[in-house]
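Q: What would this chain look like folded?
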Amino acid sequence: MREDEPMPDFTLDDANAFRAAIGDSVRAIRRTETTPAGQIEVLGYLARDGAQSIATLARLRRVRHQTMSATVADLERAGLVSRAPDPADARGVLITATDAGLATIVELRLRRSTELHDAAHAVLTQEERAALVTATTALHKLTASLHARAEE
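A: My prediction, written as C-alpha cells:
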C-alpha cells in the first residue's frame, strides 16, 4: 500500500475472516494432539496460575463441577495433576500440576510454537512474517479488551 492511500477499516467481514482464520489455525495445530483440549486447557491454567480448586477450574472452563471433576480425575490417573488439602477450606482440595504435568504443557507449547514458526518460514515472505509480529501485539490488546468486556 502506498503512503497516500487511506488505511483500510476493519469491517465486520474482516472480523469474521479474522475469527475464522484464528479458529482454523488453532484446529490445524491441534490436529495431531492426543490429549483432549479440555485437559490441555486445565494444565495450562494450573501451569500459569498455580493450584486451583475444582470449582475455580470449572468456572474458568465454563463447565459443570461434575465435568471438571471427571477431567481432573483423568489428569490425576495420567499423573499430570495431584490433589492436596486446601489450607483455606478444611473441606476443599486444591489441584496442582505435577512435574510431569508441567513438563507436558511446556513440551506442548514448544511443539505448537515450533510448528507455527516452521510453517511461517516455509510459506510467508519476510514482510508477511513482520506483519504477524505486529498483529500479535494488536491481538493481545484486542484479547485483553474482550476479557474486560466479559467481566463487565
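The mean pLDDT is 93.
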